[in-house]
Amino acid sequence: MSAAPGWYPDPGGQPGLFRYWDGRAWSATTTANPYVGPPSAGASALGPRTQASTGPLPAGAESGPRSTQALPAARRRRPIGWILAAVAALVAIVVLVSLAVRGLSGVFAGPIAGDPQANPTGIVCPSPPSQTPSPIPDTGGDRVVSGHLSYPRLAAPFSAPAPDSRTPFGRDVRSQTAEVETSSDGETSWVAAVLIARLLAGDGFYGPQQGAAVVAECVIGKFYGDNPVGREDLRNEATKVDGHDAWIIEMHLTFDISGIKTKGEAATIVVVDTGAADGEAGLFYSSIPDTSPQFTRPAEDALEGLQVN
Questions:
Q1: Which one of 67, 123, 151, 154 is CB 3.0 to 4.6 Å from 158, fit for a cystine?
Q2: Contact (CB, 8 A) for 283 and 173
Q3: What average pLDDT does the chain have?
Q4: CA gap 30, 14 in Å, rounded
Q5: Which pairs count as long-range contacts for 171-179, CB under 8 Å and 24+ apart, including other chains?
Q6: In which residue ranges of the chain is CATH 3.40.1000.10 found?
Q7: 108-133 burial, b if ≥16 CB within 10 A, otherwise e?
Q8: What is the torsional sign of CA 156, 160, 166, 167?
Q9: What is the pLDDT of residues 70-103, one digit of tens each?
Q10: Bigger pLDDT: 57 or 248?
């Protein structure tokens, strides 16, 4: 990707949000106001960069930022000068408001440079889709496939592969679960889970490391509701999957959810650069509750058996 640094419509598809391209990688932060300066130092990527982005620019993105010239300062003791300056300022405000409205409505198609006055938001996780995903036919094969990634299908008591709309940034999610417990009121179930997915955001514009980091943050926010979750990273490093570059995060999570005996679980996230021409990456995720260690080996077998198709 060759384009001048600046704010562009979020490649991850977040409506009304803009992500900063610094000439090498997309920022981890987003903003609703594309007329601010670049993110503060250290906020342009999640962790050290491991590779430059190769993802395409959104259609219509301009090749360089627009620039503005500062108005000369008004001279003292010249009332007419103050009046003209006030009028000019008012016109500038009207223009900026108009441009901001256009940008937020999706019309804006390029970066604009300006004073760094706003505070971009932190990691933004997508909301679950408003519609239930279409069921994915289970072919009954010996491998579970999503996009360019697959793993050996797990036997019972794991379920047949099924979609899961909660998975952050995931498309065509295939999830196998094994029930661990259900709360006494029957409202909450807890399961061991293994899944794979194609990445929606984190594939073309995040490298494996940045993708794994943002998915890890969003998993905690999506899978555990409003309950506080403690996190201890046991492994956070580069790895290889079937000869392809990947990043793995192994973490132990702790929580206290009403009606559930399980208070912790081991979670593994792997983002794989599948080498696809369209920049698509693969996501592997597993979570094994502390109360069901018998499911640890099947999850490890799935991880060890990952293949890039």
A1: 154
A2: no
A3: 73
A4: 9
A5: 171/147, 171/197, 171/198, 171/199, 171/200, 172/136, 172/146, 172/147, 172/197, 172/198, 173/133, 173/146, 173/197, 174/136, 174/144, 174/145, 174/146, 176/144, 178/292, 178/295
A6: 143-308
A7: bebbbbbeeeeebeebbbbeeeeeee
A8: positive
A9: 323 333 344 445 444 554 554 444 433 333 333 3
A10: 248
- Residue type at 110 in one-letter notation: G
- Count the alpha carbons within 13 Å of 76 in the hemisphere toward its beta carbon: 0
Could you tell me the fold of the domain covering 143-308?
A: Protein Transport Mog1p; Chain A (3.40.1000)
pLDDT in tens, 38-57: 887 544 444 333 333 333 33
Q: In angstroms, rounded to a whole number, what is the distance separating the alpha carbons of residues 209 and 46? A: 8
pTM for the structure as a whole: 0.63
**DSSP letters spanning 222-290:** HHTTTS--EEEEEEEEEEEETTEEEEEEEEEEE---TT----EEEEEEEEEE---TT--EEEEEEEEET
The torsion of the CA quartet 198, 201, 202, 204, rounded to 10 degrees, works out to 80
Residue 113 to residues 14, 56, 117, 270, Cα–Cα distance (Å): 21, 21, 12, 36
pLDDT digits (tens, 9 = 90+) for 136-163: 566 668 999 999 999 999 999 999 999 9
Q: Cβ atoms within 10 A of the Cβ of 106, count?
A: 10
Distance from CA of residue 37 to its chain's centroid? 22
